[in-house]
Amino acid sequence: MSTVHGNLSHAMRDNYNEHGVDEYYRKVAATYRNPFFPGIKKVIWTLMNRWWEAEGRNLYSSGGTRSCGLRVLDMAAGSGEATLCLLEWATAGSQSNSISVAHPHITNTSSAPDPLAALRAIQSGQSSRPAFIPPNVWRSGPASAGPTISSRTRKGKHVFGNMDPPQLPENFEIDIVATDPYTSPAYRERTSRPCHPISFTDLANGVLPPDSLQHSQAGPIWDVIVCSFALHLVTSPSELFALLYELSGKSRWLVIIAPHKKPEIKETWGWSRWDIASWTAAGEGKLYASGKANEEEEEETELEIVRDKVKLRLYRSNAF
């Protein structure tokens, strides 16, 4: 067989049509790369910032309830795009904390003398009329209270703020287990980490990566399962149900990343759609409104992070 370089065709649909899904990934087992990597990084970092703000800080800061790292299953891991994004986010956040500790003068400017303080004190004692504002000038409302949520919700705008990681505790870690029945060689080559050749069918039948139970007590095995650009390949509704229902008893969160809105996940399959902005269950009303959106719609909503044509949805297990 001739040597395969890269992804064969850049159009994944052409690859699937020509070779079939299984055979295609066998051919590119050692060379596969996801061309949407920049967008994947943006949506993952944006989600992790929101997670840290909503609950991570309370869990992992000093006095928090968690003593172990964040446990993640990178399911159908490809060549490790999601793994790399998560590890880079954690490293960047921990390094920013180290810099602030080593150089506190960089961020602490409250004690510096203010050369204009005396002038402002004189001016504050003078009476003056308020500035004239024409009555037809639009007045903006109060600024958003949270650093992660943006008030811009018009078409093409972002609901969520920038993707710069927050300051994380120096000892914060993300413990990632990866599975992929085809591209384990590409994952190992790119990340220098192991990847177990376990398929969707294996996971649906209860097969687990080695040592997955060693950190689990009464709660879930993993905190988060990430599936990037792969879950839509499970085309049989019965097989998808079997997989998701089995996983709902093993993880608290499910993250789906894709260039589209597929697959549709029903609440009877063990998972509830999550409102990422308010960090609450989405509810039927928002789900109905979201379902009316065009498949090609690039507008970001409270339920979906969208960057560079990559979409991220979050689900909460009904079991935890």
Automatic annotation (TrEMBL):
<feature type="region of interest" description="Disordered">
    <location>
        <begin position="131"/>
        <end position="157"/>
    </location>
</feature>
<dbReference type="InterPro" id="IPR029063">
    <property type="entry name" value="SAM-dependent_MTases_sf"/>
</dbReference>
<protein>
    <recommendedName>
        <fullName>Methyltransferase domain-containing protein</fullName>
    </recommendedName>
</protein>
